[in-house]
From TrEMBL:
Family: Belongs to the iron/ascorbate-dependent oxidoreductase family.
Keywords per UniProt: Iron, Metal-binding, Oxidoreductase
Annotated GO MF terms: metal ion binding; oxidoreductase activity
Record carries keyword Oxidoreductase: yes
Annotated organism of origin: Hypsizygus marmoreus (White beech mushroom)
Domain Fe2OG dioxygenase stretches: 201-319
Pfam families (alphabetical): 2OG-FeII_Oxy, DIOX_N
Descriptive protein name: Fe2OG dioxygenase domain-containing protein
Length: 355
């Protein structure tokens, strides 16, 4: 299995000539920085690690998002995972539907187009109304830790999706390993012991989500509130997002309310803060609203266009489901939120998101 600690293979092939990626007018304040994480992974002295840690925490305080370069995951690994994901979604619907998502406590299995409606609302009736009016136009495959004694992953037969299971399990572990390192950088940036989070995330209660956004006619995107994925924040600690070149991710500028494109940058991973980490940090770290919109359409008639297909892979990082999330040291003297159990919080959010 690939080791993030040892590898120097995935240094960014491009030169990081800009400290920040501007996402709007030149004088706009909203920035998503490009951070070279190899300077943290390969540092030989503490001060080098601390400088990168401070950059990451500063970004998460200001925008809640970073582009992580030098992350240590080889491009070939990511390409292969995308290829196996694409092969999965080309399977017949009847084959995929046998693997259907069933329970928010499991959060595993196939989710057909329109079944999920991500939103900030926690009202089941409001979400049902939104889903009926403007469902998220995407399908997904949800994968959790494979050794769970209670909840099992829903794997396709090997003959239907050769090497799919092995590829996804390896990628799951690789993403977890990166999560551990980024959380260590956050701990340093917040003035905590570097290993502060290790025992609070070691049970790997994460969710690997493979996403396919099929082509869609522009006329179907004109409904009120329609998007490929509606505006939302994520639930856990961090999200690692692997994008293809099509794009469509937009991030909400918390100052202006405008949604700004997070244009794909080759060989980087988009990483954002989730709600539980924001809550853990007493809102020192920002969980920012984002959405997926359709990229420019190809005209197929005088009155109709069609958007391109899009693929992405999201690794939703969570604390251990047994962990209590309460205000961290160094994040304010007065807690804004009462303590909450991770498992209860995640399951509660998922329960109202799906039909």
């Amino acid at each position: 299995m690939f080791s993030l600690r040892a590898s120097r293979l995935a240094r960014p092939a491009f030169r990081l000539t800009k400290r920040f990626l501007a996402t709007g007018a030149e004088d706009a304040r909203f920035r998503i920085p490009v951070i070279d994480f190899s300077k943290f992974r390969e540092a030989t002295v503490f001060d080098e690690r601390k400088r990168t840690a401070d950059e990451i925490v500063t970004a998460f305080k200001e925008s809640g998002f970073v582009y992580l370069a030098g992350h240590g995951i080889p491009a070939a690994t990511i390409r292969n995972t995308f290829a196996k994901s694409a092969e999965f979604f080309t399977m017949p619907s009847e084959t995929k539907n046998k693997l259907a998502w069933e329970d928010p406590r499991s959060n595993r299995g196939y989710v057909t187009v329109g079944r999920e409606r991500v939103t900030q609302s926690a009202d089941p009736d409001e979400i049902a109304s939104l889903r009926a009016k403007a469902p998220d136009f995407k399908e997904s495959m949800e994968i959790g830790r494979d050794w769970d004694a209670e909840w099992k992953n829903q794997w396709p037969a090997e003959k239907d999706a050769p090497k799919f299971k092995d590829t996804m399990l390896d990628f799951y572990q690789t993403c977890h390993d990166l999560h551990v390192l980024v959380m260590r950088s956050i701990a340093l940036g917040l003035g905590l012991e570097e290993n502060f989070f290790d025992t609070k995330i070691n049970e790997q209660c994460h969710n690997l989500r493979l996403l396919s956004y099929p082509p869609i006619k522009t006329s179907l995107l004109k409904a009120d509130g329609q998007a490929r994925a509606g505006a939302h924040s994520d639930y856990g600690t961090l999200t690692l997002l692997f994008q293809d070149s099509v794009g469509g991710l937009e991030v909400k500028d918390p100052r202006t309310g405008d949604f700004i494109p997070a244009t794909p940058i080759p060989e980087t991973i988009v990483i954002n803060v989730g709600d539980l980490l924001a809550r853990w940090s007493n809102d020192v770290l920002r969980s920012t609203l984002h959405r997926v919109v359709a990229p420019p359409a190809k005209q197929i008639s005088e009155t109709e266009g069609i958007t391109p297909a899009r693929q992405s892979i999201a690794f939703f990082c969570n604390p251990n489901f047994s962990a209590e999330i309460a205000c961290l040291p160094n994040c304010g003297q007065e807690a804004k939120y009462p303590p909450v159990n991770t498992g209860d919080y995640i399951v509660g959010r998922l329960a109202v998101t799906y039909t």
